[in-house]
Amino acid sequence: MIADKYNMTKEENIFLAKRNMVDSIYSNARIEGINITFPETQAVYSGINVARLSVNEIDTIRNLKRAWEYLIANLDEEFDLKFICRINEEVARDESLNWGKLRTGKVFISGTEYVPPIPEEEQVSEDIQQILKISNITERAIEYMLYGMRNQLFWDGNKRTSIICANRIMIENGKGIIMMKDKDLEEFSRLLSEFYTSGNKSEIKKFIYKNCIIGIEY
Q1: Which of 7, 128, 167, 177: CA 20 to 30 A from 13?
Q2: Domain ranges of the chain
Q3: Per DSSP, which regions of 69-183 are E strands?
Q4: pLDDT in tens, 153-207
Q5: CB 163, CB 28: distance < 8 Å
Q6: Homologous superfamily of 10-214 in CATH?
Q7: Closest to 96 measured CA to CA, from 146, 53, 148, 56
Q8: Where is 63: in which H helix or E strand?
Q9: Strand (E) or helix (H) holding 212
Q10: The pTM is what?
């Protein structure tokens, strides 16, 4: 049983999320393998083009910004498949076969032989409802994040979408932010690859809980 690491008001958590938005976007981009620095992320976030970055990389950062802004502005909206699709619509805009829609064909995950099944809307909605019944908020968020990543609900942007949606669960309940630091990216990627292959999430859950949650301490 996981215990919440932080207990803040919703307003405090929103403040934390806004203060760390560029950090979160930088982390999301690095998890996708984009070779970008924090100052470059800050520049793109502020509307400045960085010559070294490709158009696709710049678009990824801008899409992440829009997704995070949508999240903060819509915390009172019901968390369901419709909301998750809306986040993916922002995350994968112009880079996916059909952004904001459940994928309808087979995909492969590099580094593993695991092939996720094609998602069915009714089953995905039921799975989400079961996850939302988990009593501990932090565990609920981590469980959804891992579910979204391994099941590859969308054609593209699954890790980014899953992390942002997990943070929706955290922020609205005042439990902090899930964010991977540079020093933890290699180990997180290794554990994620193992989780994709085996389906065993115990080690990656422990790692995320120990290393990847920030909050306001009093």
Answers
A1: 128
A2: 10-214
A3: 177-178
A4: 999 999 999 999 999 999 999 999 999 999 999 999 999 999 999 999 999 999 9
A5: yes
A6: Fido-like domain (1.10.3290.10)
A7: 56
A8: helix 55-73
A9: none
A10: 0.96
